[in-house]
């Protein structure tokens, strides 16, 4: 299984980098996992609705350029479907069983994902109704992917 995590914005915090590196190291036993970090669009702090859409559109174009046509795309979005860890594990297992060996998780920038990216997504996933920094979502996501593989294999960890 090949899993890519496409994320907008540079990760600067050392503690987040260390956590992500630890889970990526653990994941090597289960899948090939790549993190593709794309630059965020520079914009002023206060934006009009139109300017926000333009920023999301430009970031979305960068994201879509990195997604292969045969990939199953899961967009992380607050309006997405919430799942338990076991349900995420079942979903990953189901995709692998039925020939979807490329899964791409997409984490947008601070303004979210463009409508073009959401249209390309095969499904959307929400981790909470709360808003999290997109840098922190990378760590949460890699931990949940690791947890999913442990659940799929029936290995202890997920309690």
TrEMBL record:
What SUPFAM superfamilies does the annotation carry? alpha/beta knot
UniProt keyword Plastid, yes or no:
no
Q: Keywords for this entry? A: Cytoplasm, Methyltransferase, rRNA processing, S-adenosyl-L-methionine, Transferase
Primary enzyme class: transferase
The reply to whether Methyltransferase figures as a keyword in the UniProt entry is yes
* Protein's cellular compartments: Cytoplasm
Q: Which reaction does it catalyse?
A: pseudouridine(1915) in 23S rRNA + S-adenosyl-L-methionine = N(3)-methylpseudouridine(1915) in 23S rRNA + S-adenosyl-L-homocysteine + H(+)
In the Enzyme Commission scheme, what number(s) does this protein have? 2.1.1.177
Q: Which GO terms describe its cellular component?
A: cytoplasm
The entry lists its GO molecular-function terms as: rRNA (pseudouridine-N3-)-methyltransferase activity
* Residues the record lists as binding S-adenosyl-L-methionine: 76, 108, 127-132
- Pfam families named in the record: SPOUT_MTase (PF02590)
Q: Family per UniProt?
A: Belongs to the RNA methyltransferase RlmH family.
Described by its record, this protein's role is as follows: Specifically methylates the pseudouridine at position 1915 (m3Psi1915) in 23S rRNA.
Q: Tell me, how does this one assemble?
A: Homodimer.
Q: Which HAMAP family does the annotation name?
A: 23SrRNA_methyltr_H (MF_00658)
Q: What is this protein called?
A: Ribosomal RNA large subunit methyltransferase H
